[in-house]
Amino acid sequence: MVEERFGVGGGLPVRRLGYGTAQLTGPGYWGPRGDARDALAVLRRAVARGVRLIDTADNYGPSIAEELVAEALHPYPEDLVIATKGGVVRTGDSAWHIAGRPEQLRAMCEASLRRLRLDTIDLYQLHRLDPHVPLPEQLGALDELRTEGKIRHIGLDSITTEQLESARESTDIASVQNRYNLLDRTSDPLLKLCEAHGIAFLPWFPLGNGSLTSNPVCAEIATAHGATPAQIALAWLLHRSPVLCPTPGTGSLVHLEENLAAGAVHLTDEDMRRLYTLG
Fold it and tell me: Would you say residue 19 has pLDDT above 90?
């Protein structure tokens, strides 16, 4: 299958199609979304269907997504990788504040540990780099947490190739998360750098926030494969690079099944050529 496993940080093998939890919260990732029982059912079904990478964040809700993950899945399967993020404080549905001082990052990580009911977070990602705090100080705080056994691997979100290269001079980086999909390949240079160093690339908005599902070429190729446009968009990511690990989110069991089935779609060289011209 195209959807082979990838070893996050070189030692945590996961199915490359994971599950992201942002859609388990309300509009703007703020507040609850509907009946919590629906969210719990989706999380449990994802793991039952073989998902081994759950991607969440402390500010989804805030706190709600992490609490749902723990309620649904704790005690966790031994091979389940939980990734969360810190470094951003929410004060409203459209208010995001970067907070990268070492004492802030420590407090956020320890709060995530409590909500997730974990002793160690497998992958702790800096949600945004704080422009007012030197990068070595931010990474130093995460390194201290790793030394203490509170996190296992460090990831970065929304960065440039230059920032990744700089970060790697300070510590080991296991993952990056940038916007990347069939129609938005601005981060291609970053993807190449991740490939060169075996760094997982978790693309956010892997379905283009819905824009890909109405693309005529995607629709035509989907019809040829007996698939949906969303499945073609996810399959393209899996074919595009072995380090790409999409974590599409949904609050729907039907859409969850649709997304996970994308791992069985085998695109031809001609399919890839046609899809590549869309970018």
Answer: yes
